[in-house]
Specification:
Structural class: alpha/beta
Strand content: 15-25%
Largest sheet: 10 strands, mixed
Number of strands: 10
Order of helices and strands: HEHEHEHEEHEEEHEHHEHHHHH
Helix content: 40-55%
Length: 338
Amino acid sequence: MDNLNENDYGMVSVIIPVYQAERYLARCISSVIGQTYEKWEILLLDDGSMDKSLSICREAAQKDMRIRVFHHKNMGVAATRNRGLDEAHGQFVYFLDSDDWIEKDTFFAMVSAMAEHHADVCICGFQYMKGDECQKHDFPDYGKVSKSGFMDRYFWELYDNASLFNIGTKLYKRKIIEENSLRFHTDMVVYEDIRFCLDYIDRSEQIYLCGVPFYYYFMDNVSSSLHGYKSEFWNSTSEYCHILMNNFTDKIPSSNKAILLCLYRAFLQECHNPVLRKQEFCDSLKKHCFPIVESAGLKGGKIPGLSTDQSIFMKLISRKNVTVLWLVARVVSMRKND
C-alpha cells in the first residue's frame, strides 16, 4: 500500500454513541484501532447505559490516548451524536454505531479519496450481517461527481440500496458541518440520519462515490434502533416528508418516490405494533398519511420503479381505502407472529 501523508490529510473524529452495547462494543472499537490510517480519535459517548458499556469505554481509553469517553443520562442517539460533534477535534467526521464495525482500510480509502479529489464527502457501500449471512450493498466506484451530477445520475441507486440511508457510509468534513451549524434533529426517532446527510450534501459541491462495502451493519442486535416498534414513527415520517416537499422537491429527482417509500415504511412499521387496534391505525392514516398524499400530489400520479406491493399500497392510500389497508395490516401482522 502506498504511503499516505496523514499530517497533510488530517484527523478523523470517529463518533460512537453507546447504549447497552457490552456484547458488541469491543469489536467496534477494535475495528477503528486496527485502521491502516492511524490519525484518528474515537469519541465514545455513553448514553446512560445500565450494563458494562461505560466500563468497557473507560478501559479502552486507558489503553489508547486517542480515545475519549463521555457519559450522560439517556437522551437518544441524535442528541448523543450532536454532543460528539461538539467535542470533535478532527478535520473529518465519521459516525459508527457501537454494534457495527468497519474494514481496516476504510479511513485510508475514504480520506485519501476526499483529499486527492478535493471532495466534500465520500460515500461507500456497506454489508448487512445476520448470523453467518452477509448481504452486500455495494456499487461501482463512480469517482468524483458534482452535486447536480449526483442528484441526476446516482441519487436513486444509492437511495434504493440503502447506502445513502446508512449512517456509516459517509465521511464528512467537520468544517462544512460547523460552518453550516449542521446537527441531528432530536425530535425525530427515524430519518434523522438521512436528513443530516441531505442537509450536508445540499451544502457540498463535490461528492466522491466509492462503492466498496467498508461498513458492516450488524442485524442480530435486538436492542438496536433498527428493531422494535416505535410509537413516534408516524410523527417523524410526517415531518421528514414535509421536509422533502418543502426543501428538496427541486433537488431530488422523483422526490415523490422518496415520499411514497417513507409512507410505505411507516405503514409496515405500524403493522408491527404489538397492540394493533383498528381505530388507532385508521386515525394514524388519516392524521399523518392522507394529508401527505394530498400535499405531495401522489393521488392519481404514477411513480416508476416501485415494487408490486408498493404500487398496490400507493393505489390504496390514493383512494383513502382505510378498510382494505386495515385488512392488509392485519395480514402482515399475523404473518409476523407466525
